[in-house]
Amino acid sequence: MANGTIAMTDLPVPKAEKSFFEQSTNKHSGILSWLLTTDHKRIGLMYMFGIISFFLVGAIIGLLMRLELLSPGGKIFSAQTYNSLFTLHGVIMIFLFIIPGIPAIFGNFFLPIQIGARDVAFPRLNLLSWYVYIVGAILALTSLFLPGGPIDTGWTFYIPYSVRSGSNVSLAIFAAFILGFSSILTGINFVTTTHRLRAPGMSFFKMPLFVWATYATAWIQIIATPVIAITILLVIIERAFGVGIFDPALGGDPVLYQHMFWIYSHPAVYIMILPAMGVVSEIIPTFARRTIFGYKQIAYSSLAIAFIGYLVWGHHMFSSGQSDTSNWIFSLLTFLVALPSGVKIFNWVATMYKGSIDPQPPFLWVMSFIVLFSIGGLTGLVLGALATDIHLTDTYFVVAHFHYVMFGGTGTIFIAAFHYWFPKMFGKMYNLKFAKIAVVTYFIGFNMLYFPKFIMGYLGMPRRYYDYLPMYTPYQRISTYGSWILVSTLFFIVGYFIHAYFRGKKATSNPWGGVTLEWHIPSPPPVENFKVIPVITHDPYDFSQLKEMKDE
Amino acid sequence: MEANNKEQHIGYGTYILVWLSLLVFTSITVTVAGVNLGRYTLFIALLIAAIKSGLVINIFMHIKFDEPIFKVFIALSGFTLFIVFILTFFDILYR
Ligand code: HEM
Ligand SMILES: [Cu+2]
Q1: Is B12 exposed, middle or buried (0-12, 13-18, 19+ CB in 10 A)?
Q2: Euclidean distance between CA atoms A308 and A327, whole angstroms
Q3: What pLDDT, on a 0 to 100 scale, did the predictor assign at position B9?
Q4: CATH superfamily of A41-551
Q5: What is the mean pLDDT of chain A?
Q6: Dist CA B80 CA B66 (whole Å)
Q7: Test the B interface: residue of A219, A307, A326, A334 with most B CBs within 10 Å
Q8: How does pLDDT run along chain B (95 residues), one tens digit per residue?
Q9: CA distance A177 to A153
Q10: B12 contact A CB<8A
């Protein structure tokens, strides 16, 4: 199997090339040709349906919470309902949207193409990981309707409440356990694919940076996810048998739970952000028409982030009662992890410097990302400093911070990636004017929704409360108005993409003038991506290729 | 699976031997848990666990006979785990 692609080069290729939409990889047609497919592109699209649906559900729950907070007095939901709402919102957004988001859709679709392969290393395992994702999602949904009611612990499932709560904690976290396996399987597939299936000439340092980022992410998925799996099992055992591992009433250590939870969940924030950074490193050179500045530094900084990401989890626990020694060590390490991220931001900006910038929608989305993510990252340092964190922990400041990094960072790039690759994936072009309007309303809505939360947090508004003192009313109002603008923008975006799919103009194979391998093949790509496996001679962002590509 | 796998060199005897030693280590762990060794309890339990996983990884998972790249990967993962332990102990020991 190892060098399969090379051996396959001389297979006969059908004359008229059909796209992967028209040609099935199995003997079925219609829905079964999708549900049983082993084509990495189709699997990527199947993930897309799942992930986007959950994203919209999560967004609507967010909208409902904001509605409750429109005025003080707690009129719409009971406190208990609000507890379940923020838990569901958190669980959906984290485990079903943002962790799988970019790797499962765009990694599946583009990683093999960008390294010149016909598929991932284990296509059937790839399909299995989609089913595992769906099973996990179904279990999570089931837990909502069983007696006991929806889980109400917050997405962090902290002990001791998660042992005491009468809601369906065990089934809901078991769903997260299952989802973890999907993540691990995808990670194994990507690592193997990157090592084994690169086209001839594609050395590690000729790989596009999206591949580097997805590769580094895959390692985190493999190494970190088992930790959350064990932790979840221990909580379930604790609930069922009262063993006393975590439960303080039985002699257990609740802080140990927080350690184990964050040993996974901090690296998980890099599972969320690294692939997004990879997408940024693709989009900026394409629209600045310039090779990326500091290719190797960006590649290495992905690995550095992946590694240092394991060393900082204790910054979530400054007020948990862990030792003072841990507190200062973790605070110090947290400041270190800002360095490789800084390298990236610097290199992106340096790439644009003196480039000939073409401000198409994907590029504009990236600009919005740079602002939002920088706000998120820098406020992270405020929380990483011991003295300020004690004041701000468990307030809206934290809520604002993580929405800026996860949503403003990864979420924005998730949308940017669609604007960049949609024409390649579906062979259709969307309305560029709509897309430009959407960037602006998104940016306004986003900052209205979350910026006031920084101020409220600073003033002392705690997170996870369904009601508040009247002094916060003006800020809460602005925030809720922002949520209306933001969520309508999201639906607007989905709307113009659906419209483009059915009614859009046909897209050419290279609408933006990109040079990585996906722009060398037709839109949408044929089933096996390449007629002939390419031999790589250029650097990934060598724009002198554009001339030769005209004749392809 | 493939030709470069030298696994044929280990016979059933080795497997059974490894299995027996795993059982022995397990019973040591269980016995030691009943003896009060103070702060060494944890250390000994971790040491035994490390030896056991070393055996499983090398023999049962054939890593000993596989390409070096797999050893590098496993060593890196093990190293990460080791650092995670050290950092956790900064809490446990100084609390
Ligand atoms: C679409 C618009 C969104 C709105 C209106 C929204 C709104 C909210 C609100 C009101 C809360 C509860 C704050 C509190 O009372 O403590 C919350 C919590 C949270 N949100 Fe969002 N959010 C949105 C999108 C996202 C996205 C995209 C993500 C992740 C990528 C996300 C992740 C979270 C998490 C992890 C929590 C914490 C849940 C917990 O406390 O357990 N949200 N959000
Ligand atoms: Cu963290």
Answers
A1: exposed
A2: 17
A3: 67
A4: Cytochrome c oxidase-like, subunit I domain (1.20.210.10)
A5: 91
A6: 21
A7: A326
A8: 444 554 456 788 889 999 999 999 999 988 888 887 777 888 888 899 999 999 999 888 888 888 888 888 888 888 989 999 999 999 988 88
A9: 16
A10: no
A325/B94 touch (CB, cutoff 8 Å), yes or no = yes
A462 strand-pairing partners: A395
Segments making up each domain of chain B, as ranges: 10-61, 65-95
Q: Which two tokens stand for residue A266?
A: 């901090």
User: How confident is residue A354, by pLDDT bands cut at 50, 70 and 90?
Assistant: confident
Least Cα distance to A156 among A220, A97, A89, A57 occurs for A89
Q: How far apart are CA A108 and CA A127, in angstroms?
A: 11
Per-residue pLDDT tens digits for A529-544: 998 899 988 888 988 8
A84, A85, A102, A407: which to mutate for ligand 1, most atoms within 8 A of CB? Answer: A407
User: What is the least distance, in Å, from the CA of B87 to any CA of chain A?
Assistant: 7
Count Cβ atoms within 10 A of the Cβ of residue A456 and give its class: 0-12 exposed, 13-18 middle, 19 or more buried: buried
Distance of CA A201 from the midpoint of ligand 1 (Å): 45
**Do the beta carbons of residue B39 and residue B33 sit within 8 Å?**
no
pLDDT digits (tens, 9 = 90+) for A78-96: 999 999 999 999 999 999 9
pLDDT band of A22, cuts 50, 70, 90: confident
Chain A neighbors of B84, CB-CB under 8 A:
263, 310
The pTM score is 0.91
Residue type, A232: I
Q: What is the mean pLDDT of the segment spanning A45-59?
A: 95
- Please tell me the number of the ligand nearest to residue A77's CA: 1
Separation CA A508–CA A342 (nearest Å) = 36
Q: What is the 3-state secondary structure (H, E, C) of A393-436?
A: CCEHHHHHHHHHHHHHHHHHHHHHHHHHHHHHHHCEECCHHHHH
| Nearest C-alpha neighbor of A66 from the set A484, A447, A513 | A484
Q: Which tokens go with A533?
A: 């496996």
- Extract the runs of DSSP E, i.e. beta strands, from A8-91: none
What is the H or E stretch that residue A352 is in?
Answer: helix A324-352
Cα–Cα distance, A4 to A14 (Å, whole number): 19
